[in-house]
Design goal:
single chain, about 800 residues, alpha/beta, six-stranded mixed sheet, six-stranded mixed beta barrel, 27 helices, disordered N terminus
Length: about 800
């Protein structure tokens, strides 16, 4: 983990340009690219200029329109030319010989042979046709494409993949996401509409007196899919008069930069903390009685729960202290401070990526009602300020369209968190709210641009799941852990090797092809177009033969026709020029739920009562055992006080890393800036390290009943005792490839996390942050890390 000085120095806009090559002569970046000069591109980390010399990408340059630079972008050239690129179509040797009768337990063993593109596409066509004719389209499954192209408009791989499958009869798929499924489900049901609702940051800087950052690290996560305008605001918060409190087991980059009061709550106990705060407000009679009466529903029933009427346990600050590990007086002091000052609660998503993950966001909504500042300038509660450009004033600009997947003729779907369960238990009934889903019988999986072997929980169970389908196809630029578990690997070109559009903050961008597709790779659109041709649907797939430039022009001209604040030039002029259109920023005075506060009858919410439901009739009538009618403390399936903690006494915190986006960029030179002796680091508290005889630089084995990993030890009091920090996203690197339970050499956190149960029968979301482990010094010869060497 970076300390504050390192982080600030890296994020300073001049720090990156100083590491780049001298500025090269500027050249037009039209179709066909340039040999010497700079080319505008857009990536999952945001837009940037790529510097070229003699046709090669040799450096990067930041856009002057961005809020802050991002040190991660330095590694984009290395990512483009990485040694682990998939260089040609590859097929697993035993699959090529025996097809569906091949030994599926050999997946992951890296035994691949090169084939021609024609042979590879014929094999894909034959396998899809066989599954369709034998089992039906519902047995085809479009895998999760993750973050590979969330920034794209044309080359959005998930939409392109689904578009192809829909045109040939459809496929089973999923809904939801790993990021914020539980909070989205609960706030839609009992509160306001989405995590994308928040007050404008400039207004907060003027009016907020106390900012409570609960389970979030915005100094890191606002750099995702953004122009880092919000990151700039978070930096500015340091120089304001606003007091900040961060509730987090880790003394994160945000805590350090803002010099915040740090409340190191025990992992998975945020609900108990919120209940203890609300009990204090209740018994000290300092809550807003009028607001809970006029703008909330069911407060009296919830107040009775706080006093112990339902379970005999009064949710006092002392009770909360016992659960959370915080001092009772600190809990009470925070409660009093929240009502004494204009308070904004910025809730993160780690608090809902837990067992019973719906409860903490719901509890924070209830807390916001008791404080009574929802809808006031500088006050309220939201759950998106930490992500991308959260809080950035909405600019007056049109929204670019994007590639449409079309309509899926197959109705079968399931929550993404049940991904492995679907492969392992076809036909299983999965309850969801007041209905249920039947998990499909998946026989063929086609993933383009996704890396489930770092993204999904419980890797060893996932290995077993990947042994079930008859055919696994992965379309990918790099030899990711997931690619190694495929039968057929198609080399896709990266986002720097194709033409597209970008839209971020107040900018519309021409995301241009920087270099030709590397090795024998092809753009995803070209691959799917060729497959569509083999199924007789090419014309429909390409909408009459459109190229990627044609699609970009269509989306651009549609937006141009809707632009009211800026006269956008014709597409050809836009594309031939700089390719940047800047729109006016918003005023910055939007107050979330101001209209609702003014008159809840004329501006009702989309809940069953039209009010914020502290006790919800809507949820009550579903009678879901693990999602009661109001925010409730329920012990997680595993935590520091569970029976299993005797063997696994440390809680695993798998936070987002400042050095990658999930698993993206993990295979680049960025690792040199933070990995310890070339290995993923694990941060452990001084007391916990001493008890285990560990020191910084040691290699430790982290393990539980689900798996085991190696990581380099970093001893620090920036993590509270009883926890270890292992950032999610490191590439799974098995000592014995394909073998369930083998040692992961590179500290992939999801080797240790839980796949089941899911959050509850209401949200059915991931519980990645509910995991306990043990740590010991690794004895014996330390194996080399081989995750990034490719094939």
């Amino acid at each position: 983990m970076l300390n504050r000085r390192q982080f600030v120095n890296l994020m300073a806009s001049g720090a990156i340009s100083a590491t780049m090559l001298p500025h090269l002569a500027r050249a037009a970046s039209g179709v066909g690219g340039v040999t010497d000069g700079r080319v505008l591109a857009n990536t999952c980390l945001g837009p940037l200029w790529l510097i070229k010399k003699d046709g090669q990408v040799v450096g990067v340059e930041m856009l002057e329109q961005l809020g802050l630079a991002d040190p991660l972008l330095r590694a984009m050239p290395d990512r483009l030319y990485a040694r682990d690129r998939v260089r040609a179509p590859m097929v697993r040797a035993s699959f090529l010989k025996d097809r569906e009768k091949a030994d599926r337990t050999l997946r992951g063993s890296r035994d691949f042979v090169e084939v021609s593109w024609d042979d590879a596409l014929k094999l894909v066509t034959d396998e899809i046709t066989r599954i369709k004719e034998t089992h039906g389209n519902a047995s085809l499954h479009r895998g999760k494409s993750s973050w590979a192209s969330n920034h794209a408009k044309v080359h959005r791989t998930e939409a392109m993949n689904q578009r192809f499958l829909n045109l040939i009869g459809g496929a089973s798929t999923f809904f939801g996401n790993y990021s914020n499924q539980a909070v989205n489900e609960i706030i839609t049901g009992v509160g306001w509409g989405a995590t994308g609702m928040y007050s404008d940051f400039p207004g907060l800087l003027k009016n907020t007196e106390l900012m409570v950052i609960w389970g979030a690290n915005p100094m890191v996560t606002t750099r995702i899919l953004s122009a880092r305008k919000s990151t700039r605001y978070w930096f500015d918060l340091k120089d304001s008069d606003i007091e900040t409190v961060v509730i987090d087991p880790v003394r994160s980059e945000t805590v350090q930069h803002l010099d915040s009061q740090w409340m190191p709550v025990a992992s998975n106990t945020d609900v108990a903390l919120a209940l203890g705060i609300m009990h204090t407000l209740l018994v000290e009679d300092i809550y807003d009685k009028e607001f809970v009466s006029t703008h909330a529903f069911g407060f009296d029933d919830f107040a009775a729960y706080l006093k112990g009427a339902e379970d005999g346990t009064e949710k006092t600050a002392e009770w909360a202290a016992e659960v959370t590990g915080l001092a009772a007086e600190d809990i009470k002091a925070l409660a009093r401070k929240m009502v004494a000052k204009r308070t904004y609660i910025a809730g993160g998503w780690s608090i809902q990526r837990q067992h019973h993950g719906e409860q903490t966001p719901w509890a924070l909504m209830a807390l916001g009602c008791m404080i009574g500042q929802i809808g006031l300038p500088g006050g309220g509660v939201s759950f998106g300020m930490h992500y991308a450009d959260g809080g950035y004033p909405k600019p007056d600009m049109p929204v670019l369209g994007g590639m449409s997947p079309g309509k899926n003729p197959v109705e079968g779907t399931f929550p993404i968190a049940a991904f492995a369960d679907a492969f392992l238990n076809p036909g299983k009934e999965l309850p969801y709210k007041d209905k249920s889903f039947t998990l499909p019988d998946v026989r063929l999986v086609y993933t383009s641009g996704g890396n489930q072997f770092t993204h999904h929980q419980d890797t060893n169970r996932l290995i077993e799941a990947f042994q079930q389908p008859e055919t696994v196809i992965v379309q990918e630029p790099w030899w990711t852990p997931t690619a190694f578990f495929a039968d057929i690997v198609l080399p896709a070109s990266s986002d720097l090797e194709r033409n597209d559009l970008g839209q971020v903050a107040n900018l519309i961008l021409a995301a241009k092809q920087v270099v030709a597709p590397q090795h024998k790779s092809r753009p995803d659109y070209e691959i799917f177009s060729e497959l569509a041709d083999r199924f007789g649907v090419r014309d429909a797939y390409t909408d009459g033969g459109k190229t990627d430039i044609d699609w970009a022009k269509q989306f651009y001209e549609d937006a141009r026709g809707r632009s009211t604040s800026v006269e956008m030039p014709p597409f050809e002029e836009f594309w031939a020029g700089d390719g940047i259109i800047e729109f006016p920023e918003g005023k910055g005075d939007k107050v979330m739920l101001a209209e609702y506060r003014e008159d809840p009858l004329l501006n009702p919410l989309g809940t069953s009562t039209g009010l914020i439901e502290i006790t919800s009739p809507y949820i009550a009538k579903m009678n879901i055992p693990d999602c009661p009618a109001h925010p409730t403390w329920m012990e997680p399936v595993e935590w520091r006080k569970s029976e299993e903690a005797k063997d696994y006494p440390l809680h695993l915190v798998s936070a987002h890393s400042p050095h990658r986006l999930h698993s993206q960029m993990d295979n680049t030179i960025e690792g040199e800036s933070y990995k310890v002796n070339g290995r993923e680091p694990m941060t452990i508290n001084t007391a916990d390290a001493k008890a285990r005889g560990l020191k910084t630089g040691d290699v430790a084995r982290i393990f539980n009943a689900r798996g085991q990993v190696l990581a380099a030890v970093v001893v620090s009091d920036d993590i509270s005792a009883g926890n270890v920090l292992l950032h999610e996203g490191a590439w799974y690197d098995p000592q014995e490839p394909g073998v369930i339970g083998t040692l992961d050499k590179e500290g992939s956190a999801n080797t240790l996390t839980r796949d089941l149960p899911l959050s509850s029968g209401y949200g059915q979301a991931t519980i990645a942050e509910t995991a306990i482990v043990q740590v010991e010094k690794f004895e014996g010869e330390v194996p080399d890390v081989t995750a990034y060497v490719g094939l």
